[in-house]
Amino acid sequence: MLIAGLVLAGIAALIHVYIFYLESFAWTKKGTLATFGMTAQEAEAMRPMALNQGFYNLFLAIVTVVGIAFAAAGSTAVGAALVFAGAGSMVAASLVLVVSDPTKRSAALKQGVVPLLGVLALVIGLLA
């Protein structure tokens, strides 16, 4: 289960790198506007906030990947702590999103289910 947790955490990190790309580089492109349900004017007004949010997502992904690397190198405790911090924050952010705006439930599930499964599998793997 430890490996499954790390793989799921890695997938979650990739999802968050993609979110970083959308929020930081493709924010005003038509596909991104459709994904986030915004007009071009709304996106332009929110661009600085989206850039900042995108980098938060990137940093969570980096922390998670560094944790996976530590765990793979045999430093399980350090690796698990970093994965819990990164992926756990992804889960927490998805909860904040759905609580603050229930209409964003689909987006919250997309960003939160995989890291949640990774955290749960990691806990099971560490306890086994």
Summarize the structure.
The chain is 87% helix and 0% strand.
Note down, in words, how this protein is organized:
With about 130 residues, the chain is mainly alpha-helical. The protein has one domain. Helix content is about 85%, strand content about 0%. Helix 1 (about 1-25) runs antiparallel to helix 3 and helix 1 (about 1-25) runs antiparallel to helix 5. It is elongated, with a radius of gyration of 16 Å. The model has no long low-confidence stretch (mean pLDDT about 95).
Looking at the structure, what is the overall shape? Answer: elongated
Report how far apart the termini are.
8 Å
> Secondary-structure element order, as H and E?
HHHHH
Count, helices: 5
Q: Main beta sheet: strand number and arrangement?
A: none
- Low-pLDDT runs: none
Q: How many β strands by DSSP?
A: 0
Mean pLDDT: 96
List the domain count as a whole number: 1
Structural class: mainly alpha
Strand content: under 5%
Please tell me how large the radius of gyration is. Answer: 16 Å
Estimate percent helicity. Answer: over 70%
Q: What labels describe this entry?
A:
mainly alpha, elongated, single chain, 128 residues, 87% helix
